Amino acid sequence: MECIVHFEVEHPEGIKNLRGLLFLDEDQSPGEQELISMFKDMKFDVRLDDREKLIFKPVNPGEKYSQIRITSFDTGKENSAEDHNLKSIVGNLLPQKPTGL
């Protein structure tokens, strides 16, 4: 199964949004080593710094970027998590509550 990894690379001049691709077994989620290997293939030599926030830091302190943060994974399947865009659209379509007198 293909998994598109969306991530941000933090440079001094700003953040760049990039994507990477992983090939995983069915119903497998990307692990630390798969992500580090993907970044290494993209010429980012990193280590996991914050497991909860999915933040990676460069191994070499002289790199031109300060960190990489994974923003989302896309496996092409419906996500059972709450869809904030859909919730926003539905919220705008529903009638507003009366403000009172």
Describe the protein's architecture and organization:
The chain is globular and about 50 Å long. The longest helix is centred in the middle third of the chain and has 10 residues, at 32-41. It is 20% helix and 37% strand. It has two helices and five strands; from the N terminus they run E-E-H-E-E-E-H. It has 101 residues and is an alpha+beta fold.
In brief, what are we looking at here?
It contains 2 helices and 5 strands; from the N terminus they run ββαβββα.
Topology record:
Blueprint: E1 2-11, E2 14-23, H1 32-41, E3 46-50, E4 55-58, E5 67-74, H2 84-93
Antiparallel strand pairs: 1-2, 1-5, 3-4, 4-5
Helix percent reads: 10-25%
CA radius of gyration = 18 Å
Total strands: the figure is 5
Secondary-structure class: alpha+beta
Mean pLDDT: 84
Count helical runs: 2
Biggest sheet architecture? 5 strands, antiparallel
Shape: globular
